[in-house]
Write a structure and sequence with these properties.
CATH class of the largest domain: Mainly Alpha
Strand content: under 5%
Order of helices and strands: HHHHHHHHHHHHHHHH
Family: Belongs to the UbiA prenyltransferase family. Protoheme IX farnesyltransferase subfamily.
Number of strands: 0
CATH architecture of the largest domain: Orthogonal Bundle
CATH topology of the largest domain: Tetracycline Repressor, domain 2
Protein name: Protoheme IX farnesyltransferase
Structural class: mainly alpha
Keywords: Cell membrane, Heme biosynthesis, Membrane, Transferase, Transmembrane, Transmembrane helix
Subcellular location: Cell membrane
CATH superfamily of the largest domain: UbiA prenyltransferase
Catalytic activity: heme b + (2E,6E)-farnesyl diphosphate + H2O = Fe(II)-heme o + diphosphate
Largest sheet: none
Helix content: over 70%
Length: about 325
């Protein structure tokens, strides 16, 4: 930790400062995908138990964010994008963030275990450990593939939701995991291509910094192609269906076209139009993930009302 992480508080921390530690924007995606994993499972869950489970997953995600901010406070203070976060800004002390992260982790894991089952609680515990230790403390500062391997932490929520309902892991939950896991690199790297990053100054080996933008463009298309296969495969499982496949087909053509266009561009092309294609593809990537999980939820509603149009599905 650098001296930047030990700034003297200039005012008493507010509730909003502590909430910001939990990365609420990331938490939204976690809650949504976990909820879908819970709802598409073939076993029904008592609504109150379901609410408690999603709350625990959200709190666990928040705990991971707090632990990440505690560990990364030194590099957050260096980068313009993160300099106003609670710790480098002096609103919250590092020790407070660590204490909050650990306390929330314990609360979420124990309560999920008591309310549901050991597998769901174990997956949540591993997710927090993976994000806080494997990604934040090791991968992020040691390899340009950090976002690839570390992306697993964000891919576990639907698997946890499925485990809450079924107490098991299945091909359906694994494919939901793989959908997010394979989506994360092209999504993040599309953003990295047009954001003026200061990761280099902070000593973080992001791919755009270590290998350049041309290599990053090749990696984007390399991950997007198998992502299409995973997304379509999910449509032929017990939680898929004709509606999902139609949505997935449209979204994958749209996203693959954007990734292909990025691959074909040069730095000069990007500078000439102010990274228009990269910015557009990044926006498409947001619709892509929410669209797939939203379509899975619609399929679950169809099945619940006996409306599945796929004979023998």
């Amino acid at each position: 930790m650098t001296d930047a992480t030990n700034q003297t508080q200039t005012y008493e921390a507010q509730m909003g400062d502590y909430f910001a530690l939990m990365k609420p924007r990331v938490m939204q995606l976690v809650v949504f995908t976990a909820l879908v994993g819970l709802l598409v499972a073939p076993v029904g869950v008592n609504p109150f138990i379901g609410f408690v489970a999603i709350l625990c997953i959200a709190v666990g995600a928040g705990a991971s964010g707090a632990l990440n901010m505690w560990w990364d406070a030194d590099i957050d203070a260096v980068m313009k994008r993160t300099a106003k976060r609670p710790i480098p800004s002096g609103a919250v002390q590092p020790g407070e963030a660590l204490g909050i992260g650990l306390a929330l982790s314990g609360f979420a894991i124990v309560l999920l275990f008591l309310a549901t089952n050991a597998l769901a609680a174990g997956l949540l515990a591993f997710t927090i450990f993976f994000y806080a230790v494997v990604y934040s403390m090791w991968l992020k500062r040691s390899t340009p593939q950090n976002i690839v391997i570390g992306g697993a932490a964000g891919a576990f929520p639907p698997m946890i939701g499925w485990a809450v309902a079924t107490g098991s892991v299945s091909i359906e939950s694994v494919l939901m995991f793989m959908l997010i896991f394979m989506w994360t690199p092209p999504h993040f790297w599309a953003l990295a291509l047009f954001v003026k990053s200061d990761y280099g100054d902070a000593g973080v080996p992001m791919l755009t910094e270590t290998h350049g933008r041309t290599v990053t463009r090749k990696h984007i298309i390399a991950y997007c192609v198998p992502l299409v296969g995973v997304a379509l495969w999910l449509g032929f499982t017990s939680i898929g269906g004709p509606f999902y496949l139609l949505v997935a087909l449209a979204l994958n053509i749209w996203f693959l076209k954007g990734c292909y266009d990025i691959w074909q561009r040069t730095d000069a092309d990007s500078e000439a139009d102010n990274h228009a294609v990269e910015k557009h593809t990044f926006k498409v990537s947001l619709y892509y993930l929410f669209g797939h999980f939203g379509a899975l939820m619609v399929e679950a509603l169809f099945r619940a009302n006996g409306l599945t149009a796929w004979a023998g599905w």
